[in-house]
Amino acid sequence: MREAAAAILFDPLGRLLLQLRDNIPNIRYPGMLGLFGGHREGDESFLDCVVREVHEELSFYLPPDRFRYIAHHIGPDFDMRGGTLHAEFFVASDVPIEKLMVTEGTLKIVTLNEVDQIRSLLTPSAQFAFEVFFGHEKQSNPSN
Description:
The protein is of the alpha+beta class. Strand 5 and strand 6 (84-92) form a beta hairpin. It has three helices and seven strands; from the N terminus they run E-E-E-E-H-E-E-E-H-H. Strands 1, 2, 3, 4, 5, 6 and 7 form a seven-stranded mixed beta sheet that branches. Helix content is 19%, strand content 30%. It has helices spanning 46-58, 115-118, 124-133, and strands at residues 2-10, 16-20, 33-34, 36-39, 68-76, 84-92, 106-110.
């Protein structure tokens, strides 16, 4: 079972901060838009994971109290056919874009009015998180 955490991030103007994934071989969903986050390491909590991953990918530290839990997915892996995924999703607001330095992919800033236009460009995990966050779908396999 893969374990991961990711966050929907908003800047102070309420715009979404997404990761435009690199368009290179051997990367999942090249050229698509995803959330910042990644795989859980060792015995860290999912919250610790998202804090670490966002810090690594944006070169900006957001403390744990800036993240609010929104959903989880336990079930078929979005990325690996036949695999199982346990992912937890968070949201954080007021992320200052002028202090960010993206280390993986490119920063893509999207207004809420543009969300429907980019939906087909979102990675499966980002689509899931957006559907839950924006109220279009219930969590899959709620167990906690």
